[in-house]
Amino acid sequence: PYVILKTAMSLDGKIATRRGESKWITSTEAREYVHSLRSQVDAVLVGINTVLKDNPTLTTHSKGHNPLRIILDPYLSIPRNAEVLDDQAETLLVISETITQSEQSRKKIKILENSGIKILASPEEDGKFDFREIMRQLADMNITSVLIEGGGGTNAYALEAGIVDEIMFFIAPKIIGGKNAPTPVEGEGIKTLSEALRIKDLSIEKIGEDFLLKGKILSA
Predict the structure, then answer these.
(1) d(Cα 203, Cα 215) in Å, to the nearest integer?
(2) pLDDT (tens digit per residue) in 94-127
(3) Residues 31, 57: contact at Cβ < 8 Å?
(4) By C-alpha distance, which of 67, 114, 74, 126 is closest to 96?
(5) H or E stretch at 201
(6) How far is CA 181 from its chain centroid?
(7) Under the phi-then-psi rule, with left for phi > 0, alpha for psi from -120 to 50, and beta for the rest, what region is 194?
(8) Could you tell me whether strands 166-172 and 210-217 are parallel, antiparallel, or unpaired per DSSP bridges?
(9) Cα 33 vs. chain centroid, distance in angstroms?
């Protein structure tokens, strides 16, 4: 699939406060733009931590058709009252192949499937999925475009795996600060600047009071 990584951050590169508050960093206009963007892709993807912290709906809010909602949830820890499990759109939970061996997990899987939730078992190691394998599995499901709206960990894993084609960074004119406040791309990071990912065809657009930076990942 063609993969777009979208994030929203403050001027100093924070996606939430040190206590995890993130609603709302960007303006209403920026959020409406994202709702419209979701209607143009086949699927939107986040990690389970985003669901647990923000409890998003991941829908278009009546801005068009709702994409498939994909949640990376290796250990099937999603709560039954999560917004993404409602009937506004289809939802796919990507879980670790190993937990399907547990009787308790199989019971929860059956309950979820009976309520219309799709389950996809995928290889995982230490809670980290093989993103390339997930993309192959999604391609087999005729998913041709994916919008990643994850936190710093999910974003880092996706970029490290080399599956991202395009980035969209919304920057709000706010300063949050705090060395422990989360950032858009976390993980271990690179060792030297020569390893940094380069962006080509970068464009800047003002949306409401925010700026949207868009560009393509420059392949090595």
Answers:
(1) 6
(2) 999 888 888 888 899 999 999 999 999 998 887 7
(3) no
(4) 74
(5) strand 199-207
(6) 18
(7) alpha
(8) antiparallel
(9) 16
Contacts 24+ apart (CB under 8 A), 199-202: 199/167
| Tokens (6 digits) for 107 | 């019971």
Which residue, among 147, 135, 142, has the nearest Cα to 37 in the 3D structure?
147
DSSP string, 116-138: T-EEEEE-EETTEE-HHHHHHHH
Give the Cα separation of 79 and 173 in Å (integer).
34
Can you give the pTM of this predicted structure? 0.91
Query: What is the CA angle 132-136-137, rounded to 5?
Result: 115
Cα–Cα distance, 14 to 84 (Å, whole number): 25
Bond into 24 cis (ω within 30)? yes
- Mean pLDDT per segment of 10 residues, for the chain of length 220 residues? 96 90 88 92 95 90 88 93 92 92 87 93 84 94 95 92 95 94 88 89 95 88
Q: Determine contact, residues 43/142, Cβ cutoff 8 Å.
A: no
As a residue count, the chain comes to 220
Contact status, residue 145 vs residue 1, Cβ threshold 8 Å = yes
Q: Which residues contact 51 (CB under 8 A, 6 or more apart)?
A: 71, 73, 78, 82, 84
The residue whose two tokens read 């868009």 is 214
d(C-alpha 121, C-alpha 94), whole Å: 6
